[in-house]
Amino acid sequence: MSDFALPALVGHGPAPTGLLPPWLDPVNILDNPALGFWVVVIACGIIFAETGLLVGFFLPGDSLLFTAGLLTSTGKLPVNIGVLIMLLIVCAFVGNQVGYVIGAKAGPAIFNKPDSRLFRKDHVEHAHAFFEKHGGKALVLARFVPIVRTFVPVIVGVARMNMRHFVIFNAIGAILWAGGVTLLGFILGDRFPWVQKNLDIIFILIVLLSVVPIVVELTKAFLSNRKVGKP
């Protein structure tokens, strides 16, 4: 362990970021020795709720994963990094599957009613066509975008995307997001002490980098549609 990381470990570890309210700050949630292994259970519950339950859209998924990896690297989180990553991946995967089921079950009840401004059958048809064509890529990219990742599996369920395709890309997205972001925090947390002091900046960069692929895809689609629309 780096000598430069010792002062943080002797004290209280990473300071709360200030980016989120105290009750949502992942450092406040995870850096609590009194909870022991229950901290891991809480982290898994948050990841499941954010990806599987519509009410979890406000939860700090990216920052929590990164902080969990960071605290594991410094010994603050009492769990093996491999076990932690596996648990988080499973929760992220199961969460999206639950979101899909919610959409698949609720969709017919909503869209069998007369059309309204918000709920129209043609919207479902367009969504179905979109996810059949771009579903895999969209599912994986959505994992990295806050709020969007909560609602996309439900929308996919409403659109009745092929279940086999959904399971495959759900697994890929869970591994890349839950596994990748946690591992990134683990690698950077102990080797680069400045990361612990600048978590606000790190969290913002993670979100910005996550949005870049979405912006690129939307730009490509926009330019393609313009080209098709030319006489």
UniProtKB/TrEMBL annotation:
Membrane topology, as annotated:
Multi-pass membrane protein
Task: Output this protein's name.
Answer: VTT domain-containing protein
Alphabetical list of InterPro entries matching this protein: DedA-like, VTT_dom
Instruction: Give coiled-coil spans as residue ranges.
Output: none
What taxonomic ancestry is recorded?
A: Bacteria, Bacillati, Actinomycetota, Actinomycetes, Micrococcales
Top-rank taxon of the source lineage equals: Bacteria
Membrane-spanning segments: 35-59, 79-102, 140-159, 166-189, 201-223
Q: What is its main location?
A: membrane
Family label: Belongs to the DedA family.
Q: Does the keyword Cell membrane apply?
A: yes
- Which PANTHER family does this entry report, sorted A to Z? INNER MEMBRANE PROTEIN DEDA-RELATED, TRANSMEMBRANE PROTEIN
One CC-aspect GO term: plasma membrane
- Keyword check for Isomerase, yes or no: no
Write down the Pfam families for this protein, in alphabetical order. Answer: VTT_dom (PF09335)
Which UniProt keyword terms apply here? Cell membrane, Membrane, Transmembrane, Transmembrane helix
Domain VTT as annotated: residue spans: 59-185
Q: Where is the protein found, in the record's own terms?
A: Cell membrane
